[in-house]
Backbone:
């Protein structure tokens, strides 16, 4: 096969990265009156560069906290949100809807095939944490190795639909770490 025919060859699959809402829109992250809002503006640029460089699509999940409470809102733990009337059900419904959308994205993307690379959550988030989620113990906030409220529900809904997608936690202070993990995952999917 000539080089020219390789260049024109259609890709066999298209990768899509699923991201917590604030990866693309940090303005939805919690903040309190009087706090500097600058740190919560714009997208996480390192992830956008990774997506662009690797020609990966993106699917943005909804932000359960912002949709329910808006901003400003105080910091909260998973337990605070579990005890907030209607919030757990809100997360569960968003998880059902998101899982259905993701399944359709894969099902309808036949030629080229759509592949979900991973789901990126936000570490230290009470809703979108992957392996570092704030919990309340004896009035004190501690971080536990567990999923946040929304990601827990999303994981269960995807499992019901037979979808297995790796979840990776993004530390907003070290976004390059998640890009390295995604590069390894991408390489294993392409080979």
Residues:
């Amino acid at each position: 096969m000539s080089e020219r025919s390789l260049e024109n060859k259609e890709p066999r699959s298209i990768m899509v990265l699923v991201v917590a809402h604030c990866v693309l829109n940090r303005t939805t992250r919690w903040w309190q009156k009087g706090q500097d809002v600058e740190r919560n503006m714009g997208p996480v640029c390192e992830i956008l560069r990774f997506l662009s460089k690797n020609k990966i699509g993106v699917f943005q999940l909804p932000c359960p906290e912002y949709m329910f409470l808006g901003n400003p809102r105080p910091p909260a733990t998973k337990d605070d949100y579990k005890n907030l009337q209607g919030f757990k059900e809100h997360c569960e419904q968003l998880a059902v809807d998101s899982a259905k959308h993701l399944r359709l994205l894969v099902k309808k993307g036949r030629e080229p095939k759509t592949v979900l690379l991973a789901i990126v959550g936000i570490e230290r988030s009470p809703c979108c944490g992957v392996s570092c989620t704030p919990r309340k113990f004896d009035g004190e906030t501690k971080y536990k190795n567990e999923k946040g409220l929304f990601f827990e529900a999303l994981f269960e809904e995807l499992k019901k639909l037979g979808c297995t997608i790796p979840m990776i936690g993004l530390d907003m202070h070290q976004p390059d770490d998640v890009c390295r993990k995604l590069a390894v995952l991408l390489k294993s999917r392409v080979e």
